[in-house]
Design goal:
heterotrimer; A alpha+beta; B alpha/beta; C alpha+beta; B: alpha/beta; 4-stranded mixed beta sheet; C: OB fold (Dihydrolipoamide Acetyltransferase, E2P); 6-stranded mixed beta sheet; 5-stranded mixed beta sheet; 5 helices; globular
Chain lengths: ~725, ~100, ~180
Amino acid sequence: MSSPEETFLLECGELLTSMEDALLQMESSPADSDSINSIFRAAHTIKGTGGVFGFDDVESFTHVVENVLDKVRDNEIDVDSQLIAILLSCRDHIEILVNKAVAGEDINDDDKDIDTDLRSGLNKYLDVPEAVENNLEVAEEKHTVEFESSGSMVISDNWHISLRFDKDVLQNGMDPLSFMRYLKNLGEIVHVTTLYDDFPKLEDFDPELCYLGFEIDFSSEADKEQIEQVFEFVRDMCVLHILPPRAHIAHYSEVIQSLPEDDMRIGEILIASGVLTKRELDEALNKQEKSFQAENENVTPIGEVLVEEKVVHEEVVNAALNKQNTNKIIKSTEQTVLRVDADKLDSLINLVGELVISGATTNMLVNKSGDEQLIESMSSMSRLVEEIRDNALNLRMVQIGETFNRFKRVVRDVSKELGKDIKLNINGADAELDKTVVEKIGDPLMHLIRNSMDHGIESSADRVASGKDIQGNVWLNAYHDSGSIVIEVADDGRGLNRDKILTKAHEKGLISDGQVLTDHEVYRLIFEAGFSTAETVTNLSGRGVGMDVVRRNIEALRGSVDVDSKENEGTTISIRLPLTLAIIDGFLVRVGDSSYVIPLDMVNECIELEEGEQAEPGMHGYINLRDEVLPYLRLRNYFDEPASTTGLESIVVVKYGTNTAGFVVDELLGELQTVIKPMGKILQNVKGISGATILGSGNVAIILDVPNLIVRATQAETSHVINKASDENVLLH
Amino acid sequence: MIKVKKKRTGLCEVELDGELTIYEATDLKNELFKKMEKCKGVTINLSNVSEIDTSCFQILILAKRECDEGGIEFTMNSHSPAVLDVIETFNMGSFFGDPIVL
Amino acid sequence: MSEIMSAVENVPSLTETNELVAKTDDTGTKYLTFKVGGELFGAEINNISEIIEYSDMTRVPFTPPHIRGVSNLRGNVVPIIDLAIRLGKKPGQPTKRTCIIIVEMEDAGEKMDIGFVVDEVDEVLDIHEDDIEPAPQFGADIDSAYINGMGKLNGKFVILLLLEQVLSISELSQLISDYDLLQS
């Protein structure tokens, strides 16, 4: 993060991502000018900053790409799939070049071959229309000259760049020298005046600060945006004014006014370097005075002045103003985003976790004291702690969209490879979840999507034969549901084949002969270890890494995975994940001698059972809850806790997905916020518990993993019934 | 980084060499001005400077300014290509006013 | 009571003696001896980070008996192993002398604390390499893989445990998974 190279790498990553997105967008709608602009901007910025760092490979290659893009932008090259393909390859190549340049590695022979191939591919687009373009440019230029010279303009044909670096620019690893050198690539530096007026006294002079300013006359065919791009990388570390050739004197007067040095001093520099004539300077300074007086009244924006003076057409001004506005918007979003080291964030969240625990302890003590005032002040503090906790956790929340977008490219490339026409549909990209979860969900999703494309979606011929649209669909959906996020990977392919799965499961010994399974149970078998029904092993999926790995990865994130399928209609895999891995709201219960925490978002209601309502003794059974059957699990028996009190029991009704169940406990202790403490490697695989937390008393309480607990209990009961049945069989025979 | 060749009749001849970058800047400033104390004239030999960045170049500007203010003669000679490049880029040749051998 | 406390209070000096190991190499390696199931065992002290008083801990459901539970060690949840059961001996009832020894174990580059329960902490002593015999193939009553060697002490042998093996994270978590499968 600290070094400029790393920042460059990070920014390039972002630019390349947006380039890829835009390329894919352009593939579906070739006339989209936003896409081409964003691709161009990305390439241009990478070229520019690459040049500043002296990464020649990056700069020279991206330059060719940029030239092609420039022509695409001017509608001289038609956008077709061939062009998109080569540009996508170029994007990948730039990524390699950038990574190697930053790592200080040389490019190898393979890279060189790719480089050559891509360049020759790109050059095909560049050869023919060159001459035409030049003519156009010249004509346009003449036109503007004629037009602008009617106003009160500066005679100079050069750009004027006025540059003041922030003092800490050197400490940030930037050297004004590199920017000056890089500027030379864009044109000729006619004259430079280096200003050292800002030098402090010898004693105050800090050798690591930059005190220099520059007034540069620059002759170039480049446009303002291109010149600005040179300074892209120090944009927020310098004050930059760029005046076009033959700029209006008023512009000069504005710049002169805004610079830190004395106005006359700047004026003299400008005259000395031939930017302004003496007469022009006088005019500029006069104007400045006038505008200074006018400042107390309403100052007419410069744009309007120009229009009034009939110097420029209104449309031109509007276009320029619009551009300025969009620039402003971009700039303002840039400023509201602050990069923070992930470690710093983690340590903050850890501290907040400790705060929450210590807050809970204090709360307990305060409530014990019975001091009304203290209790009141504590409760307002608790609210604040809660808010701080929520805010802190929010810092780590990111939208799932970025992860989803990565798959656009995957789907495009893989469908080409498979010869299938597959469209990726994304819904709910704005759903947020914890960054650590997002990072770890990428691989399982990749696997599921490849699976869907490879095994789910039929070949075009098969689709036509079964009367389906030739284009297959893969959906990536995300939505929030009862405290979790659900991510679905769905397809409209052939669906799972029940018989095939059953045969395979028998082969692998996953099920025994007499077992009767529902469709859903059969489908769930695909998550068992070593299960893969693909008849042909393709190079995409089915290489032994199966759905069981996906399941394990998801479960490691305290999530669960489920599958639903309809023959010939498609398959949906749903992944359910917790929003955060750090803190949960829980409900504390006592079971025997121990305390357990049930995640609050799983709890439907808590009922203290009256004398006549007590559940039957035994590990499980069911009670009548408002005329509904509610199966229950007596946790004391289930956890082998000693029966301590014989007081009245309570029941916690938990809901998970479509299941409802009751946990019979010995006492309801109330809600609490808890920081999830990892159980460590030894205990992390115990099914039915998801972690531990430290209570206000300093004791550890186990956090229950409700869905897995229910699954576990169901399994135990089925096997119990089966065992019982087989026992009875034995007896009968 | 910095060597003082001779001191005679109050004339201080300083030779700078190697890389002069922001990492050397603080030392360069301190050393250079210490050596220059009580001098009547300063000559800086730049023949062995392999690299110079803005921070160290600023120190040369500072040295020249200080000398000018104190009425001390300040000259630089035997500019290495690295130094010449910076002088040219910043267009500071006339500021230093030294004869430059190209 | 005062007796145990002194044993417990002696603990901080472990770190000092730990440093001594490096200096006094020729006198041998420092071992902590402790009693489990009535038998004396030893373990190299450089794994051991502290000894704490025995206190009630939180049971973890669905875990085999050798997992005694989890405890709060300065804000971290630490699993506690019943060493007697782990070594295939009869678990003893906690007494005034029962202690928990905390060791730092490493698995795949990740460090974690594990505690184990012993009936009594004995002493820290030097055992010279010459006084250590290799582990017997059998007859020691516990798996020879857990034994570092047999230390000669006042004419008697003390089993020096290989804590890396006895408390191996991968082995312990495997045991739990197996137990889990067996249960369901």
